[in-house]
Every structure is written in structure tokens, then in C-alpha cells.
Helix-turn-helix domain-containing protein (Sporolactobacillus kofuensis), 156 residues
Amino acid sequence: MDKELRAVKFGQALSILDTLYNQLFNHKQQLLTKEKFDRFAQRPVDGLMELHKDVMQYAPQFKPSQGYLFKMLEEIISSLDDDEYTNDPLDPKFLYGYYKKNTDLDMLAGVDYAADILNLSPGTVKNKCASGEIPAKKIGKTWIMDKNDLIKIKGK
């Protein structure tokens, strides 16, 4: 088992759960207190289960785009081997996984954001995503884009 890689994966999972919660409450409520963050580092499986439970109680309020975050979370958790999915304390590298994933998630954009950036209607953005003119991934009925791609398109 690579302890650093394990730590990074748990850090990424923590970031996704934190992002979901922040999106639900527009950053008005915090999922992660210092105590929860520290407890997660010391007992990651218990922490993951606790935070997952905290987030899932709001599942009926989720927007379709948040399904993408759940898919990412599932992929990370399923990538953990049995010997990695333990409550052994995390290597400090989990902070790298957490902050790197936060940065990556901050770069995701939906149709409304893209429409504002590109000065287009949301319908036009969806059509351009469907045709491949705008690089995007469709999750259910929702298009997800990288903000860097939108900035490049706007600059053309």
C-alpha cells in the first residue's frame, strides 16, 4: 500500500464532500469544522462515513450537476483497495489531495456560468456543447465545462 497515494485519495474525497455541502448552502454553512477535519485525518473511514451522512440528508435538494460530483466521489472510493480502506491515520499528503481537488472543482462551470462568460443564451451554450464547439461533458441533462476552456473560447 502506498500511504501517500491513499492519503491523496481520501483528501480528494473530503474535498468533493465539502464542495457538495458548500454548493448546497452557498457557503453559508460549513461541513468541515476544524474538529471534523482533524478527526477525518485520524480516522478517515469513520470521517468519510460521517461526512457522507451529513451531506446525504440533503440529497433531495441536489441539482443535476451535483450528480457529477457523486460520480467522482464513487470513483475515488472504489479506487481504494481493501488494505487502503482503513481507519489508519492519514499521511499529511492528504492535504495535497484536498486542496488540489478543491482547485480542480473550482474550475468547473455549468451552462449559466458559460452563458454569462460567452455572452450567449443558455440554449445556445447547450447546442454548442452538443455539437462539440464547446468542450463539455454531459451528466444526465446537465453540461459541465472547464472554465479555462471558456476563457480560451471567449478570447478567440
Summary: The helical segments are 3-24, 34-42, 44-56, 66-79, 94-106, 111-118, 122-131, 147-155. The chain has a mean pLDDT of 90.
